[in-house]
């Protein structure tokens, strides 16, 4: 049984949304790992958290900004791929657990690529 042909314009929209999502998932995952390393250093290695360099504050801020971009790209891909709400929620939460954004990106990329014949 063959899948119905997907309109080329829709394929292009989904391909573009998937590209932005994949990039955001990767960047968010990297910044989350940096944030975790910073927190381990700050709270487990340093004698006191107040001894941490001032620039540590910006690591959490950067991850927050990239996570918001990740959420926007998740919504964009979800709208274009017509995901069910549970898929949106699980994908969005993947950006909060170390390494899970990479796993979620890989899984969603495979699903969307197969579904839309990309």
Write a structural description.
The protein has 118 residues and is mainly α. The protein has one domain (8-115). It is 75% helix and 0% strand. It contains four helices and no strands. It has helices at residues 8-45, 56-81, 85-93, 100-115. Helix 1 (8-45) runs antiparallel to helix 2 (56-81). The longest helix is centred in the first third of the chain and has 38 residues, at 8-45. The radius of gyration is 18 Å and the shape is elongated. It starts with 7 loop residues before the first helix and ends with a helix. 23% of the residues are buried. The mean pLDDT is 90.
Summarize the model shown.
This protein is mainly alpha-helical and 118 residues long.
Could you describe the largest sheet, including whether it forms a barrel? none
Care to count the β-strands? Answer: 0
Head-to-tail CA distance between termini: 18 Å
Helical fraction equals over 70%
Count of separate structural domains: 1
Instruction: Write down the Rg.
Output: 18 Å
Q: Indicate the mean pLDDT.
A: 90
């Amino acid at each position: 049984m063959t899948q119905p042909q997907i309109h080329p314009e829709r394929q292009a929209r989904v391909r573009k949304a998937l590209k932005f999502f994949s990039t955001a998932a990767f960047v968010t995952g990297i910044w989350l790992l940096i944030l975790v390393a910073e927190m381990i250093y700050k709270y487990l290695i340093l004698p006191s958290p107040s001894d941490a360099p001032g620039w540590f504050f910006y690591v959490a801020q950067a991850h927050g900004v990239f996570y918001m971009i990740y959420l926007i790209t998740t919504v964009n891909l979800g709208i274009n791929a017509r995901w069910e709400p549970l898929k949106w929620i699980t994908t969005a939460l993947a950006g909060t657990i170390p390494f899970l954004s990479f796993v979620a990106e890989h899984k969603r990329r495979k699903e969307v690529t197969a579904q839309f014949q990309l």
